């Protein structure tokens, strides 16, 4: 391995020294299919609504995330909240895959970079890699493409459910408070519809680990105009239903 100009360019495809199976807390024997939702309260509400049982948890030094098992039409699906940010998200995916997960649909909010109504659905088909974790799972590049087959499957499923949606590029960044006016303008000129904190890293990690991955975003806070508008996006009705859409998508994946 050769030293590069900056450390993130030094991708190594070999297996890491520390692996999930080295830790006693690592979960085991999960269903093949999994939904990761970036709303812990929504996960808890849906688990109760579906009468799901907790089968394990993702453990960390700061918080534990329960993993529930939901049975839909005889298909067992794991449901778990997601760690915010690229580093936590890929560590979670790594642990889930080590426990048997092979098909993942993630869902959550995003900032909209173009005028879109609160709750509008977006399916990412590529992502700008403005975060750090993906560079440990895929060779350096400016953008990363999502799995085209999974994107088409999610599109088809949402259409079948009668849900309007658009497909396009997202901007993944580690720095929520550094989405400057000039960066927003640049990303918009590159075709980005949304901004969030995990997509490019989750695409890279899932591909590296041999899992299929797709995502459904909803447009939450608004960065498309002058200033910033939160639009109370955490209270959007779609937040409650997004897990249902994701479960339906992963069920047929």
State the order of secondary-structure elements, H for helix, E for strand: EHEEEHEEEHEHEHEH
Average pLDDT over all residues: 95
Strand-residue proportion: 25-35%
Please summarize the sheet with the most strands. Answer: 5 strands, mixed, barrel
Question: Helical content, roughly?
Answer: 25-40%
Q: Compute the separation of the termini in Å.
A: 37 Å
**Tally of contiguous helical segments:** 6
Radius of gyration: 17 Å
Give the tally of β-strands. 10
> What would you call the shape?
globular
Low-confidence stretches: none
Structural class: alpha/beta
Enumerate the strands of the largest sheet in spatial order, edge to edge or round the barrel: 5-9-8-6-10
Structural descriptors:
alpha/beta; five-stranded mixed beta barrel; globular
Describe this structure in words.
This protein is an alpha/beta fold. The protein has six helices and ten strands; from the N terminus they run E-H-E-E-E-H-E-E-E-H-E-H-E-H-E-H. It has a five-stranded mixed beta barrel, surrounded by four helices. The radius of gyration is 17 Å and the shape is globular.
Q: Can you lay out the helices and strands and say which pair or pack?
A:
Layout: E1 33-37, H1 40-50, E2 53-58, E3 65-72, E4 75-81, H2 86-98, E5 103-112, E6 121-130, E7 143-145, H3 148-160, E8 165-173, H4 181-189, E9 192-196, H5 199-208, E10 212-222, H6 238-251
Parallel strand pairs: 1-4, 1-5, 5-10, 6-8, 8-9
Antiparallel strand pairs: 2-3, 3-4, 5-9, 6-7, 6-10
Helix pairs in contact: 1-6, 2-5, 3-6
């Amino acid at each position: 391995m050769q030293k590069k100009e900056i450390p993130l360019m030094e991708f190594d495809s070999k297996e890491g020294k520390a692996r999930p199976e080295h830790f006693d807390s690592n979960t085991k024997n999960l269903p093949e299919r999994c939904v990761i939702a970036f709303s812990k309260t929504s996960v808890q509400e849906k688990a109760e609504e579906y009468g799901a049982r907790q089968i394990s948890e993702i453990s960390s030094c700061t918080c534990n995330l329960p993993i529930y098992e939901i049975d839909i039409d005889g298909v067992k699906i794991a449901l778990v909240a997601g760690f915010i940010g690229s580093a936590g998200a890929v560590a979670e995916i790594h642990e889930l895959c080590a426990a048997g997960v092979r098909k993942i649909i993630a869902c959550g909010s995003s900032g909209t970079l173009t005028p879109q109504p609160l709750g509008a659905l977006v399916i990412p088909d590529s992502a700008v890699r403005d975060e750090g974790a993906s560079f440990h799972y895929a060779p350096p590049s400016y953008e990363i493409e999502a799995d085209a087959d999974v994107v088409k499957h999610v599109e088809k499923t949402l259409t079948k459910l009668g849900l309007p949606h658009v497909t396009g590029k997202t901007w993944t960044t580690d720095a929520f408070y550094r989405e400057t006016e000039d960066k927003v303008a640049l990303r918009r000129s590159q075709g980005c519809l949304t901004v969030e904190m995990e997509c490019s890293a989750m695409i890279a990690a899932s591909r590296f680990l041999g899992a299929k991955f797709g995502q459904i975003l909803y447009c939450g806070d608004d960065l498309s105009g002058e200033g910033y508008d939160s639009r109370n996006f955490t209270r959007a009705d779609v937040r409650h239903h997004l897990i249902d859409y994701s479960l339906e998508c992963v069920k047929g994946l």
